[in-house]
Amino acid sequence: MLNTSIKLNHSPVQHRRVSDQMYITLLVAFVAVGLFLVASVLVPNFFQVQNMLNLVTNNWAVISLGVGVSFLLISGNFDLSVGGIVALSGVLSVWFAQSVTGASTLSSGLGLPYWMAIVGALLGALLIGGLNALFVVRFRIPSIIVTLGTMMVARGIAQVITQGSQRNTNLPSEFGVLGSLKVFGTSMQFPVLFMLLLFLAAIFIERKTVFGRITYWIGANPEAAKLSGIDNAKHITYLYLFSALVAGIVGILLSSEFKSGFSNRGLLMEFDALVIALLGGIAIAGGFGSVIGMFFGAIILAVVTSAATGLTLSPDWQFILRAVAVFLAITAQTWALSLRSK
């Protein structure tokens, strides 16, 4: 009698552990949901569908800026110039479009067609992005210093053009269309659609393209990336131009929405964009993080700000509360990663 034995593999199936990046993204999402539920208990009428939508729609500008800032942070670089670019591009779009026959200096512009005014404003934004890349890549000056300087230069130019005030007269009728345009007959405005499309495109670039992978490689180990044949300088230049372009579009849309060019528009937006990126788990040293995490970081900041307003806290206490939330969130992320590695 032939005795055969068949060995069966009864070992349990080994499940792949999620990556540290996905782990932090899920943690940030969990914190965002948890904070929203806590705020719903503490703040009257907070738990409403419209309020949930407002957390995103009211912060479309900061989330849009956060995309460009996030890519640069992942590459190991800062961009604190975006707030100044928002002001500059908005002021330029107004100045270029204003009629030449104004009664005063602030009501007189170059009289260009609106589409040319938009192109000119975007070129101004890209010029600031190009300066960022030039000093960071060519002269190897730390990006935090360079972009702080260009932020002040951009806002300073905007203040000179507006004489420290704003330009809001003698504008063509089509100037306010983009900022108030409703999408497909819905209540969604075009700037919100722009933010959503930008966010989805950023996820695709980050996860599915070589460009996205290179960004991580440069941030994780720039020397190794260079030795492997990657042109770090060209890639970082593209990232700065992309971030400046996004900031320029945001500035143009805001100026269209308010039908004015204001030199203080976008004030502190650069820091909000940096904060939501850090809240979302993007490493300040580069090489780690995601735009999805940045999005949930924006939700965390929006929930804290909205809840503080609902509790009628003074602006000073709101600022302190936001600072505490940022500190606790980043500390919790660091602790969670260290605990996971044990």
TrEMBL record:
The chain crosses the membrane at residues 21-43, 55-74, 81-100, 112-137, 144-161, 181-205, 236-255, 267-288, 319-339. One of its GO terms (molecular function) is transmembrane transporter activity. GO terms for cellular component: plasma membrane. It is found in: Cell inner membrane. It is a multi-pass membrane protein. The keyword Cell membrane applies. Its main location: membrane. Keywords: Cell membrane, Membrane, Transmembrane, Transmembrane helix. Pfam families: BPD_transp_2 (PF02653). Belongs to the binding-protein-dependent transport system permease family. AraH/RbsC subfamily. This is ABC transporter permease. It comes from Vibrio amylolyticus.
